[in-house]
Write a structure and sequence with these properties.
heterodimer, A: mainly alpha, B: mainly alpha, 20 helices, about 0% strand
Protein backbone atom coordinates (compact mmCIF):
# COMPACT_ATOMS: atom_id res chain seq x y z
CA UNK A 1 0.00 0.00 0.00
CA UNK A 2 2.62 2.49 1.05
CA UNK A 3 4.90 1.38 -1.75
CA UNK A 4 3.22 3.66 -4.21
CA UNK A 5 4.52 6.61 -2.20
CA UNK A 6 8.11 5.49 -2.73
CA UNK A 7 8.70 7.86 -5.69
CA UNK A 8 7.46 10.74 -3.58
CA UNK A 9 9.86 9.77 -0.82
CA UNK A 10 12.72 9.58 -3.30
CA UNK A 11 11.79 13.00 -4.64
CA UNK A 12 11.76 14.46 -1.14
CA UNK A 13 15.16 12.95 -0.41
CA UNK A 14 16.55 14.22 -3.68
CA UNK A 15 15.25 17.68 -2.90
CA UNK A 16 16.88 17.67 0.53
CA UNK A 17 20.16 16.34 -0.79
CA UNK A 18 20.22 18.85 -3.63
CA UNK A 19 19.44 21.76 -1.33
CA UNK A 20 22.21 20.79 1.07
CA UNK A 21 24.59 20.20 -1.83
CA UNK A 22 23.91 23.64 -3.31
CA UNK A 23 24.44 25.41 -0.01
CA UNK A 24 27.63 23.49 0.75
CA UNK A 25 29.05 23.88 -2.75
CA UNK A 26 28.44 27.61 -2.88
CA UNK A 27 30.06 27.95 0.54
CA UNK A 28 33.08 25.98 -0.54
CA UNK A 29 33.53 27.25 -4.09
CA UNK A 30 32.11 30.77 -4.10
CA UNK A 31 33.71 33.98 -2.89
CA UNK A 32 32.60 35.07 0.58
CA UNK A 33 32.17 38.83 1.15
CA UNK A 34 29.71 39.40 3.99
CA UNK A 35 27.83 42.71 4.17
CA UNK A 36 25.03 43.89 6.41
CA UNK A 37 22.74 44.71 3.45
CA UNK A 38 22.80 41.13 2.33
CA UNK A 39 21.13 40.05 5.56
CA UNK A 40 18.10 42.32 5.05
CA UNK A 41 14.85 40.91 3.77
CA UNK A 42 14.11 41.44 0.09
CA UNK A 43 10.52 42.60 -0.51
CA UNK A 44 9.99 43.45 -4.16
CA UNK A 45 12.82 45.96 -3.99
CA UNK A 46 11.28 47.94 -1.15
CA UNK A 47 12.78 48.82 2.20
CA UNK A 48 11.35 46.18 4.51
CA UNK A 49 11.67 48.33 7.64
CA UNK A 50 9.91 51.65 8.04
CA UNK A 51 6.55 53.32 8.48
CA UNK A 52 3.46 51.39 7.47
CA UNK A 53 2.06 54.54 5.88
CA UNK A 54 4.54 54.71 3.10
CA UNK A 55 4.03 55.70 -0.49
CA UNK A 56 4.90 53.22 -3.13
CA UNK A 57 4.28 52.88 -6.80
CA UNK A 58 0.82 51.82 -7.90
CA UNK A 59 2.58 49.66 -10.48
CA UNK A 60 3.02 47.03 -7.80
CA UNK A 61 -0.72 46.51 -7.65
CA UNK A 62 -1.11 46.35 -11.40
CA UNK A 63 1.71 43.88 -11.83
CA UNK A 64 0.32 41.80 -8.97
CA UNK A 65 -3.13 41.75 -10.52
CA UNK A 66 -1.76 40.73 -13.88
CA UNK A 67 0.31 38.07 -12.24
CA UNK A 68 -2.81 36.64 -10.61
CA UNK A 69 -4.68 36.63 -13.91
CA UNK A 70 -2.02 34.59 -15.64
CA UNK A 71 -1.52 32.44 -12.59
CA UNK A 72 -5.20 31.54 -12.69
CA UNK A 73 -4.88 30.79 -16.39
CA UNK A 74 -2.38 28.10 -15.47
CA UNK A 75 -4.75 26.75 -12.83
CA UNK A 76 -7.34 26.21 -15.53
CA UNK A 77 -4.91 24.73 -18.00
CA UNK A 78 -3.44 22.09 -15.68
CA UNK A 79 -6.58 20.07 -14.93
CA UNK A 80 -7.53 20.26 -18.57
CA UNK A 81 -4.11 19.04 -19.69
CA UNK A 82 -4.21 16.14 -17.23
CA UNK A 83 -7.51 14.88 -18.64
CA UNK A 84 -6.97 15.94 -22.22
CA UNK A 85 -7.09 12.34 -23.48
CA UNK A 86 -10.62 11.93 -22.18
CA UNK A 87 -11.85 15.35 -23.22
CA UNK A 88 -10.86 15.00 -26.85
CA UNK A 89 -9.50 17.32 -29.46
CA UNK A 90 -12.36 19.79 -29.43
CA UNK A 91 -11.35 21.07 -26.04
CA UNK A 92 -7.98 22.07 -27.45
CA UNK A 93 -9.71 24.77 -29.47
CA UNK A 94 -11.75 25.81 -26.46
CA UNK A 95 -8.55 26.21 -24.47
CA UNK A 96 -6.93 28.09 -27.37
CA UNK A 97 -9.88 30.47 -27.36
CA UNK A 98 -9.52 30.95 -23.61
CA UNK A 99 -5.83 31.76 -23.95
CA UNK A 100 -6.55 34.04 -26.90
CA UNK A 101 -9.05 36.05 -24.84
CA UNK A 102 -6.49 36.40 -22.07
CA UNK A 103 -3.95 37.41 -24.71
CA UNK A 104 -6.27 40.20 -25.81
CA UNK A 105 -6.38 41.29 -22.20
CA UNK A 106 -2.59 41.36 -22.14
CA UNK A 107 -2.52 43.50 -25.29
CA UNK A 108 -5.02 45.85 -23.66
CA UNK A 109 -2.98 46.32 -20.50
CA UNK A 110 0.17 46.70 -22.58
CA UNK A 111 -1.35 49.43 -24.71
CA UNK A 112 -2.71 51.16 -21.63
CA UNK A 113 0.82 51.34 -20.32
CA UNK A 114 0.61 49.12 -17.29
CA UNK A 115 4.12 47.82 -17.97
CA UNK A 116 5.39 51.34 -18.39
CA UNK A 117 7.84 51.70 -15.54
CA UNK A 118 9.27 54.91 -16.88
CA UNK A 119 7.69 57.22 -14.32
CA UNK A 120 8.51 60.48 -16.08
CA UNK A 121 6.73 59.37 -19.18
CA UNK A 122 3.70 58.17 -17.19
CA UNK A 123 3.55 61.41 -15.25
CA UNK A 124 3.32 63.54 -18.36
CA UNK A 125 0.62 61.39 -19.88
CA UNK A 126 -2.73 63.10 -19.94
CA UNK A 127 -4.82 61.93 -17.01
CA UNK A 128 -8.00 60.25 -18.12
CA UNK A 129 -11.49 60.55 -16.65
CA UNK B 1 -22.34 19.29 -36.87
CA UNK B 2 -23.59 18.82 -33.37
CA UNK B 3 -21.21 21.29 -31.77
CA UNK B 4 -22.05 24.06 -34.24
CA UNK B 5 -25.71 23.68 -33.34
CA UNK B 6 -24.80 23.89 -29.70
CA UNK B 7 -23.01 27.16 -30.31
CA UNK B 8 -26.17 28.53 -31.91
CA UNK B 9 -28.02 28.02 -28.63
CA UNK B 10 -25.80 30.60 -26.96
CA UNK B 11 -25.57 32.93 -29.94
CA UNK B 12 -26.42 36.12 -28.00
CA UNK B 13 -23.70 35.27 -25.48
CA UNK B 14 -21.15 34.84 -28.27
CA UNK B 15 -22.20 38.05 -30.01
CA UNK B 16 -21.97 40.12 -26.83
CA UNK B 17 -18.69 38.53 -25.75
CA UNK B 18 -17.13 39.23 -29.14
CA UNK B 19 -18.39 42.79 -29.02
CA UNK B 20 -16.86 43.28 -25.57
CA UNK B 21 -13.45 42.10 -26.73
CA UNK B 22 -13.71 44.15 -29.91
CA UNK B 23 -14.52 47.30 -27.96
CA UNK B 24 -11.57 46.59 -25.68
CA UNK B 25 -9.23 46.36 -28.66
CA UNK B 26 -10.65 49.49 -30.25
CA UNK B 27 -10.00 51.27 -26.98
CA UNK B 28 -6.48 49.91 -26.71
CA UNK B 29 -5.44 50.94 -30.20
CA UNK B 30 -7.46 54.04 -31.00
CA UNK B 31 -8.93 55.30 -27.70
CA UNK B 32 -11.87 56.33 -29.82
CA UNK B 33 -14.89 56.09 -27.59
CA UNK B 34 -17.31 57.03 -30.37
CA UNK B 35 -16.32 54.00 -32.43
CA UNK B 36 -16.65 51.88 -29.31
CA UNK B 37 -20.12 53.27 -28.78
CA UNK B 38 -21.31 52.46 -32.27
CA UNK B 39 -19.87 48.95 -32.12
CA UNK B 40 -21.70 48.43 -28.84
CA UNK B 41 -25.00 49.71 -30.19
CA UNK B 42 -24.69 47.59 -33.33
CA UNK B 43 -23.84 44.37 -31.50
CA UNK B 44 -26.46 44.95 -28.80
CA UNK B 45 -29.08 45.46 -31.50
CA UNK B 46 -27.99 42.25 -33.22
CA UNK B 47 -28.03 40.49 -29.86
CA UNK B 48 -31.55 41.74 -29.19
CA UNK B 49 -32.73 40.63 -32.64
CA UNK B 50 -31.17 37.19 -32.20
CA UNK B 51 -32.73 36.70 -28.78
CA UNK B 52 -36.15 37.86 -29.98
CA UNK B 53 -35.80 35.37 -32.80
CA UNK B 54 -34.93 32.58 -30.35
CA UNK B 55 -38.22 33.20 -28.53
CA UNK B 56 -39.92 31.34 -31.33
CA UNK B 57 -37.28 28.66 -31.57
CA UNK B 58 -37.06 25.29 -29.85
CA UNK B 59 -36.39 24.82 -26.15
CA UNK B 60 -33.92 22.40 -24.67
CA UNK B 61 -30.53 22.08 -23.06
CA UNK B 62 -27.06 22.12 -24.53
CA UNK B 63 -23.41 21.93 -23.50
CA UNK B 64 -23.89 18.77 -21.47
CA UNK B 65 -27.06 20.24 -19.91
CA UNK B 66 -25.17 23.21 -18.53
CA UNK B 67 -27.17 25.65 -20.66
CA UNK B 68 -30.92 25.93 -21.12
CA UNK B 69 -32.21 27.70 -24.20
CA UNK B 70 -35.54 28.82 -25.57
CA UNK B 71 -38.67 29.69 -23.61
CA UNK B 72 -38.12 31.50 -20.35
CA UNK B 73 -34.35 31.58 -20.88
CA UNK B 74 -34.81 33.17 -24.30
CA UNK B 75 -37.14 35.78 -22.89
CA UNK B 76 -34.60 36.45 -20.16
CA UNK B 77 -32.10 37.19 -22.91
CA UNK B 78 -34.63 39.54 -24.53
CA UNK B 79 -35.08 41.38 -21.23
CA UNK B 80 -31.34 41.71 -20.71
CA UNK B 81 -30.69 42.85 -24.26
CA UNK B 82 -33.52 45.39 -24.13
CA UNK B 83 -32.13 46.90 -20.96
CA UNK B 84 -28.61 46.90 -22.34
CA UNK B 85 -29.40 48.33 -25.77
CA UNK B 86 -31.44 51.23 -24.46
CA UNK B 87 -29.16 52.13 -21.59
CA UNK B 88 -26.14 51.98 -23.89
CA UNK B 89 -27.89 54.32 -26.31
CA UNK B 90 -28.50 56.79 -23.49
CA UNK B 91 -25.04 56.42 -21.98
CA UNK B 92 -23.00 58.16 -24.66
CA UNK B 93 -24.60 61.56 -24.53
CA UNK B 94 -24.84 61.55 -20.74
CA UNK B 95 -21.18 60.67 -20.29
CA UNK B 96 -20.04 63.09 -22.99
CA UNK B 97 -21.96 65.92 -21.41
CA UNK B 98 -20.58 65.12 -17.99
CA UNK B 99 -17.08 64.71 -19.42
CA UNK B 100 -16.44 61.06 -18.62
CA UNK B 101 -16.89 59.37 -21.94
CA UNK B 102 -14.41 56.53 -22.19
CA UNK B 103 -14.60 53.37 -24.24
CA UNK B 104 -14.04 51.08 -21.27
CA UNK B 105 -17.57 51.82 -20.09
CA UNK B 106 -18.94 49.99 -23.10
CA UNK B 107 -16.72 46.98 -22.78
CA UNK B 108 -17.61 46.69 -19.09
CA UNK B 109 -21.30 47.01 -19.94
CA UNK B 110 -20.94 44.33 -22.58
CA UNK B 111 -19.12 42.01 -20.21
CA UNK B 112 -21.82 42.57 -17.59
CA UNK B 113 -24.41 41.74 -20.25
CA UNK B 114 -22.42 38.65 -21.13
CA UNK B 115 -22.70 37.54 -17.51
CA UNK B 116 -26.43 38.25 -17.42
CA UNK B 117 -27.00 36.25 -20.60
CA UNK B 118 -25.14 33.29 -19.11
CA UNK B 119 -27.16 33.74 -15.92
CA UNK B 120 -30.55 33.61 -17.62
CA UNK B 121 -29.54 30.57 -19.63
CA UNK B 122 -28.06 28.58 -16.79
CA UNK B 123 -29.31 25.09 -16.13
CA UNK B 124 -26.68 24.29 -13.54
CA UNK B 125 -25.75 26.09 -10.37
CA UNK B 126 -22.13 26.41 -11.50
CA UNK B 127 -23.12 28.14 -14.74
CA UNK B 128 -25.44 30.30 -12.69
CA UNK B 129 -22.65 31.29 -10.36
CA UNK B 130 -20.37 32.03 -13.30
CA UNK B 131 -23.00 34.31 -14.82
CA UNK B 132 -23.72 36.12 -11.56
CA UNK B 133 -20.05 36.78 -10.93
CA UNK B 134 -19.22 37.98 -14.43
CA UNK B 135 -22.17 40.31 -14.19
CA UNK B 136 -21.45 41.56 -10.67
CA UNK B 137 -17.74 42.21 -11.08
CA UNK B 138 -18.35 44.28 -14.19
CA UNK B 139 -21.07 46.19 -12.37
CA UNK B 140 -18.80 46.96 -9.42
CA UNK B 141 -16.40 48.62 -11.83
CA UNK B 142 -19.19 50.52 -13.57
CA UNK B 143 -20.60 51.78 -10.27
CA UNK B 144 -17.23 53.32 -9.48
CA UNK B 145 -16.83 54.93 -12.89
CA UNK B 146 -16.86 58.41 -11.37
CA UNK B 147 -13.75 57.80 -9.36
CA UNK B 148 -13.03 61.42 -8.43
CA UNK B 149 -16.41 61.77 -6.81
CA UNK B 150 -16.96 60.61 -3.24
CA UNK B 151 -20.41 59.20 -3.89
CA UNK B 152 -19.20 57.13 -6.81
CA UNK B 153 -16.39 55.60 -4.80
CA UNK B 154 -18.77 54.92 -1.93
CA UNK B 155 -21.20 53.27 -4.32
CA UNK B 156 -18.55 51.05 -5.84
CA UNK B 157 -17.07 49.99 -2.51
CA UNK B 158 -20.45 49.36 -0.91
CA UNK B 159 -21.64 47.43 -3.89
CA UNK B 160 -18.47 45.40 -3.98
CA UNK B 161 -18.42 44.52 -0.29
CA UNK B 162 -22.10 43.63 -0.02
CA UNK B 163 -22.04 41.92 -3.41
CA UNK B 164 -19.11 39.77 -2.34
CA UNK B 165 -20.91 39.04 0.91
CA UNK B 166 -24.05 37.93 -0.90
CA UNK B 167 -21.98 35.85 -3.29
CA UNK B 168 -20.69 34.06 -0.21
CA UNK B 169 -24.26 33.18 0.79
CA UNK B 170 -25.09 32.01 -2.70
CA UNK B 171 -21.96 29.92 -3.02
CA UNK B 172 -22.43 28.33 0.39
CA UNK B 173 -26.02 27.53 -0.55
CA UNK B 174 -24.83 25.93 -3.79
CA UNK B 175 -22.22 23.92 -1.88
CA UNK B 176 -24.74 22.64 0.66
CA UNK B 177 -27.25 21.74 -2.06
CA UNK B 178 -24.48 19.88 -3.83
CA UNK B 179 -23.75 18.10 -0.60
CA UNK B 180 -27.39 17.13 -0.17
CA UNK B 181 -28.12 16.09 -3.73
CA UNK B 182 -24.74 15.13 -5.15
CA UNK B 183 -25.17 17.33 -8.19
CA UNK B 184 -25.26 20.94 -9.25
CA UNK B 185 -27.70 20.33 -12.11
CA UNK B 186 -31.06 21.91 -11.39
CA UNK B 187 -33.05 18.82 -12.35
CA UNK B 188 -30.89 16.55 -10.20
CA UNK B 189 -31.42 18.77 -7.19
CA UNK B 190 -35.16 18.47 -7.77
CA UNK B 191 -34.76 14.69 -7.51
CA UNK B 192 -33.20 14.79 -4.04
CA UNK B 193 -34.92 12.22 -1.84
CA UNK B 194 -33.41 12.94 1.52
CA UNK B 195 -34.25 16.43 2.60
CA UNK B 196 -32.17 16.84 5.72
CA UNK B 197 -30.77 19.85 7.45
CA UNK B 198 -28.09 20.32 4.81
CA UNK B 199 -30.69 20.50 2.06
CA UNK B 200 -32.82 23.07 3.86
CA UNK B 201 -29.83 25.16 4.86
CA UNK B 202 -28.73 25.10 1.22
CA UNK B 203 -32.14 26.22 0.00
CA UNK B 204 -32.25 29.01 2.59
CA UNK B 205 -28.80 30.32 1.70
CA UNK B 206 -29.60 30.16 -2.01
CA UNK B 207 -32.73 32.23 -1.39
CA UNK B 208 -30.75 34.77 0.65
CA UNK B 209 -28.20 35.05 -2.16
CA UNK B 210 -30.94 35.75 -4.68
CA UNK B 211 -32.72 38.19 -2.37
CA UNK B 212 -29.49 40.16 -2.17
CA UNK B 213 -29.13 40.30 -5.94
CA UNK B 214 -32.71 41.42 -6.54
CA UNK B 215 -32.56 43.72 -3.48
CA UNK B 216 -35.48 42.36 -1.50
CA UNK B 217 -35.94 43.75 2.02
CA UNK B 218 -34.06 43.17 4.37
CA UNK B 219 -31.20 42.66 1.91
CA UNK B 220 -31.78 45.96 0.14
CA UNK B 221 -29.35 48.20 2.04
CA UNK B 222 -26.88 48.57 -0.81
CA UNK B 223 -29.44 49.58 -3.42
CA UNK B 224 -30.13 53.28 -2.69
CA UNK B 225 -26.50 54.23 -2.18
CA UNK B 226 -25.31 52.35 -5.23
CA UNK B 227 -28.08 53.60 -7.48
CA UNK B 228 -27.51 57.15 -6.31
CA UNK B 229 -23.73 57.09 -6.52
CA UNK B 230 -23.37 55.39 -9.89
CA UNK B 231 -23.62 57.44 -13.11
CA UNK B 232 -27.32 57.69 -13.90
CA UNK B 233 -27.45 55.74 -17.16
CA UNK B 234 -25.32 53.05 -15.56
CA UNK B 235 -27.89 52.97 -12.76
CA UNK B 236 -30.54 52.44 -15.42
CA UNK B 237 -28.53 49.50 -16.68
CA UNK B 238 -28.01 48.03 -13.21
CA UNK B 239 -31.61 48.55 -12.14
CA UNK B 240 -33.10 46.90 -15.19
CA UNK B 241 -30.90 44.41 -17.00
CA UNK B 242 -29.15 42.94 -13.97
CA UNK B 243 -32.30 42.79 -11.89
CA UNK B 244 -34.29 41.19 -14.70
CA UNK B 245 -31.52 38.64 -15.18
CA UNK B 246 -31.53 37.88 -11.46
CA UNK B 247 -35.28 37.36 -11.42
CA UNK B 248 -35.28 35.13 -14.50
CA UNK B 249 -32.55 32.99 -12.96
CA UNK B 250 -34.62 32.90 -9.77
CA UNK B 251 -37.58 31.56 -11.78
CA UNK B 252 -35.39 28.90 -13.37
CA UNK B 253 -33.89 27.78 -10.06
CA UNK B 254 -37.18 27.69 -8.19
CA UNK B 255 -39.17 25.99 -10.90
CA UNK B 256 -36.53 23.50 -11.97
CA UNK B 257 -34.48 22.74 -8.90
CA UNK B 258 -37.02 23.15 -6.09
CA UNK B 259 -40.48 22.37 -7.50
CA UNK B 260 -41.40 19.74 -4.92
CA UNK B 261 -40.77 22.01 -1.93
CA UNK B 262 -42.77 24.80 -3.50
CA UNK B 263 -45.10 25.08 -0.52
CA UNK B 264 -42.17 25.85 1.77
CA UNK B 265 -40.36 28.48 -0.26
CA UNK B 266 -43.49 30.20 -1.43
CA UNK B 267 -44.40 30.82 2.22
CA UNK B 268 -40.98 32.34 2.80
CA UNK B 269 -41.27 34.51 -0.29
CA UNK B 270 -44.77 35.56 0.79
CA UNK B 271 -43.24 37.14 3.89
CA UNK B 272 -40.38 38.75 1.99
CA UNK B 273 -42.77 40.14 -0.60
CA UNK B 274 -44.76 41.93 2.11
CA UNK B 275 -41.63 43.35 3.75
CA UNK B 276 -40.21 44.45 0.41
CA UNK B 277 -43.37 46.16 -0.78
CA UNK B 278 -44.14 47.91 2.49
CA UNK B 279 -40.64 49.04 3.39
CA UNK B 280 -39.66 49.89 -0.18
CA UNK B 281 -42.70 52.11 -0.63
CA UNK B 282 -42.54 53.76 2.78
CA UNK B 283 -38.88 54.65 2.37
CA UNK B 284 -39.52 55.95 -1.14
CA UNK B 285 -42.15 58.32 0.27
CA UNK B 286 -39.60 60.30 2.26
CA UNK B 287 -36.87 60.60 -0.37
CA UNK B 288 -36.03 64.07 -1.65
CA UNK B 289 -33.53 62.86 -4.19
CA UNK B 290 -35.09 61.56 -7.38
CA UNK B 291 -32.41 58.96 -8.03
CA UNK B 292 -32.76 57.66 -4.50
CA UNK B 293 -36.52 57.66 -4.82
CA UNK B 294 -36.24 55.59 -8.00
CA UNK B 295 -33.91 53.22 -6.17
CA UNK B 296 -36.47 52.64 -3.43
CA UNK B 297 -39.15 52.36 -6.08
CA UNK B 298 -37.14 49.60 -7.71
CA UNK B 299 -37.10 47.82 -4.34
CA UNK B 300 -40.88 48.22 -4.20
CA UNK B 301 -41.17 46.81 -7.72
CA UNK B 302 -39.07 43.84 -6.62
CA UNK B 303 -41.73 43.34 -3.95
CA UNK B 304 -44.53 43.21 -6.51
CA UNK B 305 -42.51 40.74 -8.56
CA UNK B 306 -42.05 38.58 -5.46
CA UNK B 307 -45.85 38.31 -5.22
CA UNK B 308 -45.62 36.32 -8.43
CA UNK B 309 -43.01 34.07 -6.86
CA UNK B 310 -45.25 33.48 -3.87
CA UNK B 311 -48.00 32.36 -6.25
CA UNK B 312 -45.50 30.21 -8.18
CA UNK B 313 -47.71 28.97 -11.00
CA UNK B 314 -47.01 28.96 -14.71
CA UNK B 315 -49.34 31.93 -15.07
CA UNK B 316 -47.52 33.74 -12.29
CA UNK B 317 -44.13 33.15 -13.91
CA UNK B 318 -45.40 34.51 -17.23
CA UNK B 319 -46.83 37.50 -15.35
CA UNK B 320 -43.44 38.09 -13.72
CA UNK B 321 -41.74 38.01 -17.12
CA UNK B 322 -44.20 40.55 -18.48
CA UNK B 323 -43.77 42.71 -15.40
CA UNK B 324 -40.00 42.64 -15.80
CA UNK B 325 -40.33 43.70 -19.41
CA UNK B 326 -42.55 46.66 -18.51
CA UNK B 327 -40.25 47.46 -15.59
CA UNK B 328 -37.21 47.49 -17.87
CA UNK B 329 -38.83 49.85 -20.37
CA UNK B 330 -40.11 52.37 -17.86
CA UNK B 331 -37.09 52.37 -15.60
CA UNK B 332 -34.55 52.91 -18.36
CA UNK B 333 -36.80 55.72 -19.55
CA UNK B 334 -37.17 57.38 -16.14
CA UNK B 335 -33.45 57.18 -15.37
CA UNK B 336 -32.77 58.49 -18.86
CA UNK B 337 -34.76 61.64 -18.13
CA UNK B 338 -33.08 62.04 -14.73
CA UNK B 339 -29.73 61.75 -16.54
CA UNK B 340 -30.82 64.41 -19.00
CA UNK B 341 -31.76 66.90 -16.27
CA UNK B 342 -28.54 66.06 -14.50
CA UNK B 343 -26.15 66.86 -17.31
CA UNK B 344 -27.69 70.29 -17.78
CA UNK B 345 -26.58 71.42 -14.38
CA UNK B 346 -23.75 69.13 -13.44
CA UNK B 347 -23.90 66.17 -11.12
CA UNK B 348 -25.98 66.28 -7.95
CA UNK B 349 -28.77 68.00 -9.81
CA UNK B 350 -31.09 65.22 -8.76
CA UNK B 351 -32.87 66.73 -5.77
CA UNK B 352 -36.59 66.92 -6.36
CA UNK B 353 -36.66 70.67 -5.66
CA UNK B 354 -34.27 71.17 -8.58
CA UNK B 355 -36.99 69.93 -10.87
CA UNK B 356 -39.37 72.79 -10.18
CA UNK B 357 -40.82 74.06 -13.41
CA UNK B 358 -38.58 72.02 -15.69
CA UNK B 359 -41.53 70.32 -17.32
CA UNK B 360 -42.41 73.36 -19.41
CA UNK B 361 -38.93 74.06 -20.67
CA UNK B 362 -38.49 70.92 -22.68
CA UNK B 363 -42.08 69.71 -23.10
CA UNK B 364 -41.10 66.43 -24.74
CA UNK B 365 -38.91 65.38 -21.81
CA UNK B 366 -41.59 66.34 -19.31
CA UNK B 367 -44.24 64.36 -21.13
CA UNK B 368 -41.99 61.33 -21.45
CA UNK B 369 -41.20 61.49 -17.73
CA UNK B 370 -44.93 61.54 -17.04
CA UNK B 371 -45.44 58.47 -19.21
CA UNK B 372 -42.74 56.52 -17.38
CA UNK B 373 -43.91 57.59 -13.94
CA UNK B 374 -47.57 56.86 -14.65
CA UNK B 375 -46.54 53.47 -15.93
CA UNK B 376 -44.61 52.83 -12.70
CA UNK B 377 -47.64 53.79 -10.63
CA UNK B 378 -49.59 51.24 -12.65
CA UNK B 379 -52.12 53.47 -14.31
CA UNK B 380 -53.73 52.24 -17.52
CA UNK B 381 -53.08 52.33 -20.44
CA UNK B 382 -49.39 51.80 -19.73
CA UNK B 383 -47.48 48.52 -19.59
CA UNK B 384 -46.85 48.88 -15.86
CA UNK B 385 -50.55 48.48 -15.23
CA UNK B 386 -50.82 45.25 -17.20
CA UNK B 387 -47.75 43.89 -15.42
CA UNK B 388 -49.14 44.62 -11.97
CA UNK B 389 -52.59 43.42 -12.91
CA UNK B 390 -51.34 40.10 -14.19
CA UNK B 391 -49.13 39.47 -11.17
CA UNK B 392 -51.96 40.29 -8.78
CA UNK B 393 -54.42 38.18 -10.77
CA UNK B 394 -52.09 35.19 -10.70
CA UNK B 395 -51.74 35.57 -6.93
CA UNK B 396 -55.50 35.77 -6.44
CA UNK B 397 -55.91 32.56 -8.44
CA UNK B 398 -53.68 30.92 -5.86
CA UNK B 399 -55.72 32.38 -3.00
CA UNK B 400 -53.11 34.86 -1.79
CA UNK B 401 -55.73 37.50 -1.09
CA UNK B 402 -53.98 39.19 1.86
CA UNK B 403 -50.76 39.50 -0.11
CA UNK B 404 -52.56 41.17 -3.00
CA UNK B 405 -54.31 43.56 -0.62
CA UNK B 406 -50.94 44.65 0.74
CA UNK B 407 -49.69 44.99 -2.82
CA UNK B 408 -52.59 47.16 -3.91
CA UNK B 409 -52.31 49.37 -0.82
CA UNK B 410 -48.58 49.71 -1.33
CA UNK B 411 -48.99 50.75 -4.92
CA UNK B 412 -51.67 53.22 -3.89
CA UNK B 413 -49.12 54.77 -1.53
CA UNK B 414 -46.59 54.84 -4.34
CA UNK B 415 -48.78 57.29 -6.26
CA UNK B 416 -47.63 59.99 -3.86
CA UNK B 417 -43.94 59.87 -4.58
CA UNK B 418 -44.22 59.29 -8.31
CA UNK B 419 -46.73 62.07 -8.84
CA UNK B 420 -44.72 64.35 -6.55
CA UNK B 421 -42.03 64.49 -9.24
CA UNK B 422 -44.64 65.58 -11.76
CA UNK B 423 -46.00 68.16 -9.34
CA UNK B 424 -42.54 69.69 -9.12
CA UNK B 425 -42.05 69.48 -12.87
CA UNK B 426 -45.27 71.26 -13.71
CA UNK B 427 -46.81 73.01 -10.74
CA UNK B 428 -44.00 74.61 -8.78
CA UNK B 429 -42.67 76.83 -11.50
CA UNK B 430 -42.02 79.76 -9.19
CA UNK B 431 -39.91 77.81 -6.69
CA UNK B 432 -37.20 76.56 -9.01
CA UNK B 433 -33.73 77.85 -9.58
CA UNK B 434 -33.65 79.30 -13.06
CA UNK B 435 -32.04 76.68 -15.22
CA UNK B 436 -31.94 76.75 -18.98
CA UNK B 437 -32.21 73.26 -20.36
CA UNK B 438 -30.32 72.40 -23.51
CA UNK B 439 -32.13 70.25 -25.99
CA UNK B 440 -30.89 66.66 -25.88
CA UNK B 441 -29.39 65.09 -28.97
CA UNK B 442 -31.59 63.49 -31.61
CA UNK B 443 -30.65 59.94 -30.73
CA UNK B 444 -31.26 60.53 -27.04
CA UNK B 445 -34.77 61.82 -27.61
CA UNK B 446 -35.52 59.08 -30.11
CA UNK B 447 -34.41 56.40 -27.64
CA UNK B 448 -36.66 57.79 -24.94
CA UNK B 449 -39.58 58.14 -27.35
CA UNK B 450 -39.15 54.51 -28.43
CA UNK B 451 -39.22 53.45 -24.78
CA UNK B 452 -42.37 55.48 -24.14
CA UNK B 453 -44.05 54.13 -27.25
CA UNK B 454 -43.22 50.56 -26.23
CA UNK B 455 -44.53 51.25 -22.72
CA UNK B 456 -47.76 52.51 -24.25
CA UNK B 457 -47.96 49.76 -26.89
CA UNK B 458 -47.61 46.88 -24.44
CA UNK B 459 -50.11 48.62 -22.17
CA UNK B 460 -52.75 48.82 -24.88
CA UNK B 461 -51.99 45.64 -26.74
CA UNK B 462 -50.34 43.18 -24.34
CA UNK B 463 -52.12 40.17 -25.84
CA UNK B 464 -49.49 38.88 -28.25
CA UNK B 465 -46.72 39.07 -25.66
CA UNK B 466 -48.73 37.56 -22.81
CA UNK B 467 -49.88 34.68 -25.03
CA UNK B 468 -46.30 34.02 -25.98
CA UNK B 469 -45.17 34.09 -22.35
CA UNK B 470 -47.99 31.76 -21.30
CA UNK B 471 -46.92 29.29 -23.96
CA UNK B 472 -43.54 28.76 -22.25
CA UNK B 473 -43.76 25.41 -20.60
CA UNK B 474 -40.20 25.11 -19.40
CA UNK B 475 -40.71 27.05 -16.19
CA UNK B 476 -44.32 26.12 -15.65
CA UNK B 477 -44.93 24.42 -12.36
Amino acid sequence: MLEQYLPVLILVELAIILAIAFILLSRLLGPNRPASNKLGAYESGMDPIGQARDRYSVSFYIIAMEFIVFDLEVIFIYPWAVRYQEFGEGTLWAMMLFIFILFLGLIYTLKKGSFDWDTEHTATRKPRL
Amino acid sequence: MESANELLTILPVIIIGTAGLLVMMVDAFTENSRTAYWITVLFSAIGLAVSVNSLFGPTGTSFYNMIAYGGTAAFGAVLVMTGTLFSVMLTREYLEKTGRHIAEVYSMMLFATFGMLVLVQSNNLVTLFLGIETMSISLYVLAGLVKDEKKGVEAALKYFLLGAFSTGFLLYGIALLYGASGSTFLVDIAATDEKGLIYWAGVALLLVGFFFKVSAVPFHMWTPDVYQGAPTTITAFMATASKAAGFVAFILVLSRALPDVRAEWSDVIWLFAIFTMVIGNILALVQDNVKRMLAYSSIAHAGYVLIGFAAATGAAYSAILFYLFAYTLMNVGAFGIVAYYEWNKGLDFTEIKNYAGLGYQQPLMGVLMSVFLFSMVGIPPFAGFIGKYRVFAAAIDEGLISLVIVGVLASAASVYYYIRVLVYLYMKEDEGAQVTLVKPGMLYSVTLVILAVLTLYFGINPGSLTDLLLSFKDAAY
